[in-house]
Amino acid sequence: MGLWAGLAATTLLLAGCGGGGGDDDAGAPADSPPTSERPSAPPETTTPSSDAPTSEPPPTGVAPASDINLDEVILKPGDLAEFQITESPGDDRDTPPTKAGPATCQPVENLRLDAYTATPSATARRFALATTGDYRGTGTTITLAAFTATDAEKIMSDLRSAVAKCANGYEGGALTFTEVRELTPVPVGDEAVSFHLSGRATPTSYTLVRQGSILIRLSSAVGTGGEAEVPQPVVVQQVMKIQAAAARTAS
User: Which domain CATH number covers 140?
Assistant: First the structure.
């Protein structure tokens, strides 16, 4: 199905939308041109001072997450014509995640509940309901969460490892999930992980994208109980809004 072709919406019931705990919710920078000139003499070799900084400066053209207002870059009504975008129910909740068994599956349970091992510096949430087209009836909860670069990369790495190890399911609190099926994510952002979670009344698909140090969590389900796909246009448009904001802030 095309990235932008007719997407859209009817109604939908999702078991537990949004917010940090509870049930499931339903550019690369241009390369520098090669330099043809060569120095007339080799540069002098110097011994670095012990006072010199040891860490490299952040790459140019990339704004830190702290400089981006998540409320301004999260999808809003009108950003996608075929989707009804509203405030996410339960946005004010912040419930600790339940424990997963085996413990190696904890990152999957954390993502299911929109909870994180590190505390984000800011969050923003929305709900997108497809009203027509290929994704009609699919409801998607969107969470943006800002972290340090180290924390964002670790969350992605831990989730990727857990998805691979928990294919046969796991126990999440009082719930039993029978399958964690890895999916191919939309190729956007710096990296992404996608999977489908089965074992309860509302099967749900999840995608987590890292754009810089901002994590974009999307969970999709349909009220009929069938298997839903995270709508590609929602993923792409959300990532593009963050990329555009980062470019403006860094310029």
Answer: 3.40.1000.70
